[in-house]
Design a protein that fits this description.
Blueprint: E1 2-7, E2 10-18, E3 24-33, E4 52-54, E5 59-61, H1 70-73, E6 88-92, E7 96-99, E8 114-116, E9 125-126, E10 128-137, E11 148-151, E12 159-161, E13 169-173, E14 183-188, H2 191-194
Amino acid sequence: MYFEKKIGQGRAFMELERKADGSFGVKRRGFVTRYKGGFSQAQPQMATESPLIHDGSQNVLSTAVDFRNSTLTGTTLAGPNGSGQFLLVTISTGRTITAFTSTMLNSSASVVYGVCQNKPRPGDAVDVGIFGITKVVAGSTTIVGGSLLGASSTTSGVVTLYTGGNGRPVGLAIENAASIGAVFTAFIGGVQLWAST
């Protein structure tokens, strides 16, 4: 079932779905702004992530790092709110995830596994996007859509423009990065596996 209600210049909507037990639950809800006339006003672009294949949270975060917001951990990472969200990660021993660091760039033993999608505590399950469209964090202001991306040589987990001899490419920018630390949309996965170092 779908419901809409006019509020100001837009409409709030809610879609319900019937659950297996016969009850109803909210499937999705939101707010849509509709403009009068034959044109629409420009809307700001936001980083998106779809379609994206996840690894099914089959790995855990290393006990040596904490990907939660810096207000909880006291340590500031390069992701949103000082977290490890949307940073490049790698797999270490025993299905353990850790941030991909600059010391791993030219190591044949370390490749980017994917991009962290959540903010786990040490030892918690990590949701990693491994192939597709995802949000990533910029380590440079020179990233433009269509550019090949690599891991930063200065800040753990962020992406910059790929340069030969500096690790492997990890993806492709889909949109421009407005500033260092900006979250923007990129394609990741597969590229680093077949590219030469």
